[in-house]
Every structure is written in structure tokens, then in C-alpha cells.
Amino acid sequence: MRTRCGSWICLFSVSLLSGFAQQNRPADHSITLDVAVTDKAGKPVAGLEQQDFTLLDNKQPQKILSFQAVGGAAPAGPPVEVVLMVDEVNTPFSRVAIVREQIEKFLGQNGGALALPVSVAVLDDSGKIVRTPVTRDGKALIADLEQADFGLRSIRKSVQGIFGAEDQQRISLQGLGQLTDYETATPGRKLVVWLSPGWPLFFGLSTQLSSKDQQGIFSSVVAFSDEMRRARITLSNVDPGGATEGEMHMSDFEQFFKGVKKPGQVALGDLGLQPLAHRTGGRILEASNDLAGEIAICVQDGTAYYVLGFEGLPGDGPNEYHELEVKVDKPKLTVRTQSGYYAQPFRQAQ
Fold first, then answer.
1. Paired sense of beta strands 305-311 and 30-38, if any
2. Would you tell me which of 164, 168, 211, 259 could form a disulfide with 340, CB atoms 3.0–4.6 Å apart?
3. Strands annotated E in 59-178
């Protein structure tokens, strides 16, 4: 028996596509990838050169046309901005105050001198994002937070129960779309650390999707993939649930990590927070009592990384998925970047 989940999926997809996905953008030819390389301890690795990297597009070697090392002894690169997103929609009321305390602990380290420019944003149940100014002054950010309303407002629940989860998912995706749209106009790389246990796609939302539902989800997956890549957003997820309270584990959502190639393959989980984060090359950190430490782990990705440019291949049809893989010719290193892109047919010159 189908639930009514499909109705909001299609409505949300129409809203999303009328926003940033239907702006008649030309197909991407030149593609920029922000590439994080870490050692076995998870620390960023600086000092690599272009010849150390191999780029595969659909498993075929692709020429790297531009290369820049950022951090370490390399010259200063393009600006990097960190956004700490407090998800009041999906985070239990009991954890919101703890989230704020841990953010303030992170901001207060080193006397408030932040390694990268940071802003703190709050997503409330209206879908509105309230955000502090961007600064390297952690003490100023703490003062801003002390003036902010971190109260968790109650999401409207229907008597059936399932529609409360639908509201949470819709508002969460709208918030990510709003943030992405804003950051597209801002130059440089953005590290978005979304502090949330995740969105309610994995709990009790078993449904048989119609072809219209599948097309709606697929269109949204394509739109988020394209726009977060254009905005140069690396999305990471930190679960603020605490070591004994976290509800989800990697095995719950890793089945959705692979790229979605066509509408018939999609599931509700493809629009989950963790799969979206994985596809941008971000980190996914399970619940811990050291939330400030986990934020620091995500932020350090902006202290040393690499920017690779290449020419995207044409698609044989619209929204043709291309899997990307970046390898490093050094042992025991981990590479994270955008996992793929959607190619479009190249237009012939008139």
C-alpha cells in the first residue's frame, strides 16, 4: 500500500527545479574538483604535486588541465568559508543546548583565533535560515550566538504521524537548497558542517514509488549534485546525538552512496543528508560526546587540499551520470572529492 510520500516529493521537486535547477544554465564543460587527501590518521596531506594525481571519468583516464595545491607551504589559495549549520528541525530538543555549547567550545579554541572564516547558521521549522556574519573571530561569533534564539520549535504533526516526517524532510531539503543557492554567488570553496542526526527518510518510510515520484526524486538528486558542485560546497554531517544516543550508523545509509544513474534506480534514501554529503566528498561522523572535536575534524579539510580542473565529457543524452575517481600515487592515503557529475549533450555551434 502506497503512502502519500510521493505527493510531497513531486511538489518539492517542482519547487526546487523552478529555483536553481531551471535557470537555463549551459552544460558544464570545465569542471573544478576540490580534493581532500588525508593520511591514515585522518590528517590533511600537503605537498603533493600534479603528477601524483590520476583522474578517472567513467573509469577512463582524463587529462588534468589545471592544478592548485592549497595549504602547507603552497601560496595562499582561493577563499575557504566554513558554515556550521545547526539543524533545529531534526535535532531533539534535549540536544540543541549541547550543540550550542559544543560550537562555542570549538569557536573558543586558541583564544578565539579561527584558522578559517566561519559563520554559524540555524535552520528552524519554517525553513528559514538565520546566519551570523562570516569571521575569523571566534569570540565575536560566541557573542552573536548568545544573542540568538536557539529554541527548538515544534514541527507540525498530523494525526497519521507520517506527515510530520514529511514536513521535516521537505524543510530540510528546502534549507539545503536555500543555502546552496546563496553560496553559488560566493566565490571559493565552502565547508558546510551540518549538525544533525539526519533526515527522516530511513525510518518507517517504506513506499512503492510511482514513475512520477521516481522522476521527481531523480530530478532533485541531479539538481543538488550540479548546484553544490557549482557552489563548491563540501557537505559534511556530524551527528550531535552523543555516543550512547546516536540513532543511525554508516550501515543504515551507505547503500545510497552510489551515484544515481536513472529515475528507475532511485529511492527515498537518495535524498538523505548522509548520501548527499558523501557525494560531495564530505565527512560523515557518527555520534560522539566530543562534538567540538568532530567539527574540528571537518574544518581541517579546508587547511590543506587540492583543486583539479578538467574538461567534462559530453553526455549521449540529458543527465547522463559520470562516475569520478581521483587517485594518488602514494601509499596509505585516502582521497575524497565529488563522486560524479551529470553530463549533458554538447550543443553544436550555430
1. antiparallel
2. 259
3. 60-62, 66-70, 80-87, 113-123, 129-131, 135-137
Q: What is the DSSP letter of 269?
A: G
Q: How many domains does the chain have?
A: 1
172-219 pLDDT, tens digit per residue, is: 999 999 999 999 989 999 999 999 998 876 544 446 788 888 899 999
The Cα–Cα gap between 278 and 269 comes to 13
Closest C-alpha among 118, 96, 121 to residue 109:
118
Region of residue 58 (phi > 0: left; psi between -120 and 50: alpha; otherwise: beta)? left
In a domain, 63, yes or no: no
Domain assignment present for residue 64? The answer is no
Q: Would 185 be classed as within a structural domain?
A: yes
Residues 6+ apart with CB under 8 A from 160: none
| Prediction pTM value | 0.89
Q: Which domain holds residue 199?
A: 5-12+77-306
* Per-residue pLDDT reduced to its tens digit, 261-276: 999 988 888 999 999 9
Distance CA 200, CA 172 (A): 10
Amino acid occupying residue 18 = S
Q: Are strands 320-328 and 340-343 parallel, antiparallel or unpaired?
A: antiparallel
